């Protein structure tokens, strides 16, 4: 389907990769892997035709369609969710218009016996059959099925896309891409904005997709469940394995051991040759042999070893004070924004040493309960933090609290104690701050880099209760392994909010499920919970079907929820008012974020770095954005409640 031959990409002196050749066949499910910066996203852009290589060719077979989902893209705000999703079927609308024109022409013409009329009938019949095969009559049902699979509610379909966060709008773009059903799907981190249920739905979709898939993802469970081939980009070259990721890891380890042995043998050969040259350089009787050895040395092609795998690095939390037996106790905890109840009657007791997961769809209150535990927002009910509890909290906004004038190395050096200080470079390397990156100032780091740095700092602080809100979002697989091992060995208590099944597997022993305003406790690991959920859903479905009474006409009750015309009119008026407030709030947040970007650009200059007032403005704007986002979330929840 796609043939890549002699590909080379250069950014500066050293090529990103060179002499790369491989073929993408029908039904291939390829995981594109490699360390951050190896060129995975660049490879996808080249395959999608959005970037040209320095050398080499990418040949796509005739009539083969390619669909590409980048990590970041420009999103439109002018349509509703359904209207935006319908853009995937523009080709069907064009075909429908063409059929309508031909149908009208058949009705208007009277030369029934002419050759051109017969040709028109044949063309109409052929195109109409093709239209039906493409799903021209049931595309709307397919859109609904896809949007619901990716986590949308039916009530969302007629909402403007501008009401949704960036993550949800990326889901709309993913839905459009899947609905177009291209022959080759190129997906760059498609699970970044999905919850567990949506990821599982996407897995099922890709498994039965008739075309080829090439994807970049740090979600190990996802790529293991979807892919059957692994292509690694390493040291500027590719290694092609016809196996899923887990099998690739084993084979890669064997390959690296072979490389090490070959490297050691080559180094010994080089040293022996150099010793011979040095020893007999000035002996006339050995001149021919010396010249021969010099030429031999010049012809040696150095063996390159794959990048060091830092996943074997072991991190251990520093000792902390022993906490009480019950670090967190919730009794009847409730959180509401106006009339919208996020959750209610939450009863939860977390024991010392337990490692638990908070899971559920986005927006069901996982992070909200964490904020309640951290006493960052008001709530109703009783929530007790146990005796001697020292909390280490990680969320995306923790990265904003870093000292921007320090280097990456100094940020960690200031919290590291004891022998761990000797391993700072190794730790930074494991979290993708190897080499010169450790000398960067915090103020020039991207959002993802700051999050990783905040995570490392947390790992080195003495705490006995860890609360981690989506800790793996900016980590590659090796970094996640380091973090997972450290948490597994941690003798304190852990609460993890995450959609990463592979990360949670073998780590947590209890799962709290958030949904529908309630929080349910499930004993066991994440896969026990997922298996149980499927069984529960089937049982509930059977119970619903078998116990449904036969309706009698005289006993059909009038719905208590049915609203009068006037009441519905008042609800619509409130909803329109809230929609305007939400839109105004989003505009305000956008303006504040633009000011933050402008200040960040000024702070990156030598003059700005010395201007203390800029940092004060920056912090003030960040606080204002946080307050505006909380107000936006509150209004949005109230609006959703009204619409339901």
TrEMBL record:
Keyword Nuclease on entry: no
Coiled coil start-end: 561-642
Membrane-crossing residue ranges in chain numbering: none
Domain ABC transporter: 2-260, 328-541
UniProt cross-references to SMART domains, sorted A to Z: AAA
GO MF annotation list: ATP binding; ATP hydrolysis activity
Gene3D superfamilies named in the record: P-loop containing nucleotide triphosphate hydrolases (3.40.50.300), Valyl-tRNA synthetase, C-terminal domain (1.10.287.380)
Keyword Metal-binding: no
Keywords: ATP-binding, Coiled coil, Nucleotide-binding, Repeat
Pfam families for the chain: ABC_tran, ABC_tran_Xtn
UniProt cross-references to InterPro entries, sorted A to Z: AAA+_ATPase, ABC_tran_Xtn, ABC_transporter-like_ATP-bd, ABC_transporter-like_CS, ABCF_ATPase, P-loop_NTPase, Val-tRNA_synth_C_sf
Family the UniProt entry places it in: Belongs to the ABC transporter superfamily. ABCF family. YbiT subfamily.
Official protein name in the record: Probable ATP-binding protein YbiT
Species of origin: Phocaeicola barnesiae
């Amino acid at each position: 389907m796609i043939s890549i031959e002699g590909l080379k990409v250069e950014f500066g002196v050293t090529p990103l990769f060179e002499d790369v050749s491989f073929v993408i066949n029908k039904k291939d499910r390829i995981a594109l892997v490699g360390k951050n910066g190896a060129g995975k996203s660049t490879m996808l852009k080249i395959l999608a035709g959005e970037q040209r290589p320095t050398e080499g060719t990418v040949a796509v077979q005739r009539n083969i369609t390619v669909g590409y989902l980048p990590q970041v893209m420009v999103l439109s705000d002018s349509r509703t969710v359904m209207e935006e999703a319908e853009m995937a079927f523009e080709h069907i609308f064009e075909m429908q218009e063409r059929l309508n024109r031909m149908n009208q022409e058949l009705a208007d013409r009277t030369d029934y016996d002419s050759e051109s009329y017969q040709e028109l009938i044949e063309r109409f019949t052929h195109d109409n059959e093709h239209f039906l095969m493409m799903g021209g009559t049931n595309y709307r049902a397919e859109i609904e099925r896809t949007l619901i699979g990716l986590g949308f509610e039916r009530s969302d379909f007629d909402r403007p896309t501008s009401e949704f966060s960036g993550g949800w709008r990326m889901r709309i773009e993913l839905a459009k891409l899947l609905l177009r059903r291209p022959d080759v799907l190129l997906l760059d981190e498609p699970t970044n904005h999905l919850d567990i249920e949506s990821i599982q739905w996407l897995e099922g979709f890709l498994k039965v997709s008739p075309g080829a898939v090439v994807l970049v993802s740090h979600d190990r469970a996802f790529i293991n469940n979807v892919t059957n081939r692994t292509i690694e980009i390493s040291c500027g070259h590719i290694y092609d394995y016809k196996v899923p990721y887990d099998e690739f890891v084993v084979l890669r380890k064997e390959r690296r051991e072979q490389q090490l042995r070959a490297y050691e043998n080559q180094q010994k050969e080089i040293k022996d040759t150099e010793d011979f040259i040095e020893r007999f350089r000035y002996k006339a009787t050995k001149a021919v042999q010396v010249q021969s050895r010099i030429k031999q040395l010049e012809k040696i092609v150095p063996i390159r070893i794959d990048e060091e795998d830092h996943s074997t690095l072991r991190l251990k939390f520093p000792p902390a004070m022993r906490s009480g037996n019950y670090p967190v106790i919730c009794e009847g905890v409730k959180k509401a924004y106006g009339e919208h109840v996020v959750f209610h009657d939450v009863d939860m007791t977390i024991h010392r040493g337990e490692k638990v997961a908070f899971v559920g769809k986005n927006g069901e209150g996982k992070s909200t309960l964490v904020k309640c535990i951290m006493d960052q927002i008001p709530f109703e009910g009783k929530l007790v933090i146990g005796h001697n509890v020292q909390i280490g909290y990680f969320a995306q906004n923790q990265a904003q609290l870093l000292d921007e004038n320090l280097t990456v190395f100094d940020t960690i050096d200031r919290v590291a104690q004891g022998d761990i200080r000797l391993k700072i470079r190794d730790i930074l390397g494991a979290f993708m701050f190897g080499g010169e990156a450790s000398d960067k100032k915090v103020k020039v780091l991207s959002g993802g880099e700051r999050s990783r740095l905040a995570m490392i700092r947390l790992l080195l602080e003495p705490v006995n209760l860890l609360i981690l809100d989506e800790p793996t979002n900016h980590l590659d697989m090796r970094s996640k392994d380091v973090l997972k091992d450290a948490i597994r060995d941690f003798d304190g208590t852990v609460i993890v909010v995450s959609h990463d099944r592979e990360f949670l597997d073998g780590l947590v022993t209890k799962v709290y499920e958030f949904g529908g305003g309630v929080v349910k406790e499930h004993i066991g690991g994440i896969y026990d919970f997922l298996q149980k959920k499927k069984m529960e859903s089937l049982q509930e479905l059977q119970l619903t079907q078998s116990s449904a009474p036969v309706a009698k006409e005289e006993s059909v009750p009038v719905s208590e929820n049915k609203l009068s015309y006037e009441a519905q009119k008042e609800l619509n008026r409130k909803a329109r008012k809230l929609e305007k407030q939400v839109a105004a709030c989003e505009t305000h947040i956008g303006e504040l974020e633009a000011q933050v970007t402008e200040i960040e650009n000024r702070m990156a200059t030598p003059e700005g770095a010395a201007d203390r007032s800029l940092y004060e403005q920056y912090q003030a704007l960040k606080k204002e954005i946080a307050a505006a986002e909380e107000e936006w979330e509150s209004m949005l929840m109230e609006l959703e409640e009204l619409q339901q």
